[in-house]
Design goal:
Layout lengths: L5 E4 L3 H12 L4 E4 L4 H8 L8 E3 L3 H6 L6 E4 L5 H10 L8 E4 L5 H13 L3 E8 L1 H7 L2 E6 L4 H11 L2 E2 L2 E2 L5 E2 L2 H29 L4 H11 L7 H11 L22 H12 L4 H14 L1 H8 L13 H34 L5 H7 L10 H9 L12 H24 L4 H13 L6 H12 L3 E2 L8 E2 L18
Parallel strand pairs: 1-2, 1-4, 2-3, 4-5, 5-6, 7-10
Antiparallel strand pairs: 6-7, 8-9, 11-12
Helix pairs in contact: 1-6, 5-8, 8-11, 8-12, 8-14, 9-10, 11-12, 12-18, 14-17, 14-18, 15-16
Length: 483
């Protein structure tokens, strides 16, 4: 007789922890894995003694254990594995049953899979799950999107197991088809930006001769103010850790080559497709790419020279400048992320709840912070938020930090310390506040060599002109032919 409220496929650490989390909250869960021995290891190990966890050894047994409408959650590697399991499941499911992809899938794949599942009479959810292993076990941030009719059937489960912020679950319906995975992708992109900004603050403090222990105390102090966040907290913890083998700070024995799983890159690609300037996330991705060519950098360091200026000035004042520059850069990064979500909502026809997204990120996820409460409040106001930089609180915060921000970027240049995220954030701010940019010259160049036309300042928007720059180009423009 069916008895499981939900089934989960994929007994890696995230899947196991979600099953245990669901069990803790009173739900009965059926578990399955392609390598069935992992199911037995889980049931007889971490899940031992729990009668609310049912181990199954085939797709047929797994599906038979589920109450109707069947709710099947996939926690498998993004890509072909998800499509493979969908095709294995569909013949065994009935109309109205729900397939849930909880992995880090590309939102465009989720759009396609939602359409496919619905064409077969099934419902589909693509949901971001953030918080890592600890979050999955004790309360992640969950960002579901897909078939709207599926949400009432999973809402109680998802909101029960999600993290809570001020008593509210860090989970709510995001939007249609790929909206959930898109919002998770932007979350991960913002995470890239946050981490790079923190690393640049670390590099600047290192450049003025601070020890890891001293930096740990600074980050701990910062975590008691407006920068209060999970990433600032763990940075303090990391810098305080000593390597047992060498007695050196743990951070100093870790090779400076960063990895990535692709969601930051997806964010940048999507931003280019949407025409959105998410420059800070872009620089964070490229900084990881630069770190990966370690051998080239080691060789280049023997040949390429930069400034050899020692730091001169008051250390405490410089550290405060770094803090203010970090906060201003962080505001710009989130402004870019929310601008990108706004553009995607228009492109894909999603009705996104931006304040709801910020609220979902307040607990459980990697970018959780006090700061997100400010964003949640901004989007719950009466006026539409075009850009967070225009919200009074953030506008004022950047204005107060601006002088320090410029000082620290200037000092980094003089010291030869690369701060791509700090500096591109400042460039974005200066660009966004510029009534006139040099793109007029760029358009003239495009029209000169490619007859791409331009708009005039004395004509209505949308009316295009062309100049015969050389006297031999004629009147034909790029808009009138395809080549």
């Amino acid at each position: 007789m069916p008895q499981a409220d939900i089934g989960l496929i994929g007994m890696a650490v995230m899947g196991q922890n979600l099953v245990l989390n669901m069990s803790d909250h009173g739900f009965t869960v059926a578990a399955f894995n392609r390598t069935v021995s992992k199911v037995d290891d889980f049931v007889n190990g971490p899940a031992a003694g729990r009668d609310t966890i049912i181990g199954t050894h085939s797709i047929e047994e797994f599906v038979a254990a589920l109450k109707r409408p069947r709710r099947v959650m996939l926690m498998v590697k993004a890509g072909p594995a998800v499509d493979g399991f969908i095709e294995k499941l569909l013949p065994h499911l009935e109309d109205g049953d729900i397939i849930i992809d909880g992995g880090n899938s590309n939102f465009k794949d989720t759009i396609r899979r939602t359409r496919h599942a619905e064409s077969q009479g099934k419902l589909y959810i693509g949901t971001g799950v953030s918080g890592g292993e600890e979050g999955a076990r004790h309360g992640p941030s969950i960002m579901p999107g897909g078939s709207p009719a599926a949400w009432p059937h999973v809402k109680d489960i998802f909101q029960a197991i999600a993290a809570k912020a001020d008593g509210a679950p860090c989970c709510d319906w995001v939007g249609e088809n790929g909206a959930g995975h898109f919002v998770k992708m932007v979350h991960n992109g913002i995470e890239y930006g946050d981490m790079q900004l923190i690393c640049e603050a670390y590099a600047l403090m290192q450049a003025i001769g601070m020890t890891a222990g001293e930096m740990s105390k600074v980050f701990a102090e910062w975590n008691r103010g407006e920068l209060d966040s999970y990433l600032i907290q763990i940075t303090s913890d990391i810098l305080a850790k000593t390597d047992e083998l060498t007695g050196r700070p743990m951070v100093d024995v870790i090779l400076d080559t960063a990895g990535q799983k692709g969601t930051g890159k997806w964010t940048v690609i999507s931003a280019c497709e949407l025409g959105m300037p998410v420059t800070i996330i872009g620089e964070a991705v490229f900084a990881r790419c630069l770190s990966a060519i370690k051998e080239e950098r080691v060789a280049a360091a023997q040949q390429l020279r930069g400034p050899k200026r020692a730091f001169k000035g008051e250390r405490a004042k410089f550290i405060e400048d770094v803090r203010q520059g970090l906060y201003a850069s962080k505001i710009c990064s989130y402004a870019q992320g929310f601008q990108m979500m706004r553009a995607a909502a228009g492109e894909y026809g999603w009705d996104l709840n931006y304040g709801g997204a910020a609220a979902m990120w307040r607990g459980g996820c990697i970018i959780r912070s006090q700061f997100l409460g400010r964003i949640t409040k901004a989007f719950r106001g009466k006026k539409e938020v075009v850009n967070l930089l225009l919200v009074p609180y953030f506008r004022s915060a950047v204005r107060k930090a601006q002088t320090a921000w410029r000082r620290v970027v200037t000092k980094a240049i003089r010291l030869g310390v690369p701060v791509p995220a700090f500096s591109t954030a400042l460039a974005y701010y200066d660009g966004y506040r510029s009534e006139r940019l040099p793109a007029n010259l760029l358009q003239a160049q495009r029209d000169y060599f490619g007859a791409h036309t331009y708009e005039r300042v004395d004509k209505p928007r949308g009316e295009f002109s062309h100049t015969n720059w050389t006297g031999t180009g004629g009147a034909t423009t790029a808009g009138t032919y395809t080549a």
